[in-house]
Amino acid sequence: MLALRGISKRFGAVQALADVDLEVHAGEVVALVGDNGAGKSTLVKTIAGVETIDSGVIEWQGRPVSIGKPHDATNLGIATVYQDLALADNLDVVSNLFLGREIRRFGLLDEVEMERRSRELLDTLSIKIPSVRIPVASLSGGQRQTVAISRSLLGDPKVVILDEPTAALGVEQTAQVLDLVERLRGERGLGVILISHNMADVGAVADRVAVLRLGRNNGVFDMQDTTQEQIISAITGASDNAVTRRAARHTGSEPAGEGEK
Questions:
Q1: Residue 131 belongs to a domain with what CATH number?
Q2: Where's the ABC transporter domain (predicted)?
Q3: How would DSSP label each residue in 31-66?
Q4: Is residue 132 within 8 Å of 94, Cβ to Cβ?
Q5: Quick check: is 81 in a domain?
Q6: Based on the number of CB atoms within 10 Å of its own CB, is 80 exposed (0-12), middle (13-18) or buried (19 or more)?
Q7: pLDDT, mean of each 10-residue run, the chain (261 residues)
Q8: Measuring CA to CA, how many Å separate 238 from each of 12, 35, 55, 235?
Q9: Which residue, 18, 67, 174, 254, is the most exposed by fewest CB within 10 angstroms?
Q10: Rounded to the nearest 5 degrees, what angle is found at the Cα of 109, between the Cα atoms of 107 and 114?
Q11: pLDDT at position 243
């Protein structure tokens, strides 16, 4: 569905991204992980159209495309749910779902149709909330997250980007959100990019894990045959150090240990 080829982005003297590749297929969850400052947020913003790339190619369904603003990403079929959710706490669930895309009939808001579609969408996703007319401020953290994700689906996207969807959630609420991610992949066949620091969440739903380190690719792992330790090593750079040490031993240039000095 989506492919990034050699994406680079610079902010002044800071090279935020350097020659980054990423692929997302229909019906799979790709976790994007990395330490703080690894470039995850910048990469997501280039996909979402918030930032423009300096070089590289973005491909959508096999053809090169230009994403210069958020509207371009939306038109292609890319939806992004940011960590702050961008929900209006004083409005009810229906109003939040259709905020900015209200349905009108004869020039007036069609509240009945919007409520019907809201119930239908939430039922399809097996999302349980007390009422679609309850203010969002009254919902739990997990319920708010599912409402934000549900809103992104109204545009019928093909790829959904979720930025830290389980951050600051409890165990039960996290399970609710991860179950929804499973439904996006399995029942709707969407490609999902999951940005997360929680390796347990990554292990629970991700098919592949793409690691960024210092703005560069540092490995893509298939979760079926990868341990969390391998991924953490790629995130921290421990695997790079191990390779360097092996190369040094092979050439005989490894520094002497404390006992050999």
A1: 3.40.50.300
A2: 2-239
A3: EEE--TTSSHHHHHHHHHTSS--SEEEEEETTEEE-
A4: yes
A5: yes
A6: buried
A7: 97 96 97 94 95 96 95 95 88 94 92 94 89 93 91 92 88 90 93 94 95 96 92 85 40 45 37
A8: 29, 13, 29, 8
A9: 254
A10: 135
A11: 40
DSSP string, 111-125: HHHHHHHHHHHHHHT
pLDDT attached to residue 150: 92
Burial environment of residue 157 by CB neighbours within 10 A (0 to 12, 13 to 18, 19 or more) = buried
SS3 category, 190: coil
Q: Give, for 192, the enclosing helix (H) or strand (E).
A: strand 191-195
Q: How far apart are CA 101 and CA 129, in angstroms?
A: 22
pLDDT of residue 240: 59
List the end-to-end C-alpha distance of the chain, in Å, as a whole number.
55
The reported pLDDT for the residue numbered 61 is 96
Reference 35, options 196, 229, 239, 205; nearest CA is: 196
Q: Specify the number of domains making up the chain.
A: 1
Q: Would 205 be classed as within a structural domain?
A: yes
Q: What is the pLDDT of residue 258?
A: 42
Determine, yes or no, domain membership for 124.
yes
- Bridge partners (DSSP) listed for residue 195: 32, 163
Evaluate whether 178 touches 147 at the Cβ level (below 8 Å). Answer: no
Q: What is the pTM of this model?
A: 0.86
Amino acid residing at 101? R
Domain that holds residue 191: 2-226
Instruction: Give 222's contacts (C-beta < 8 A, 6+ positions apart).
Output: 207, 208
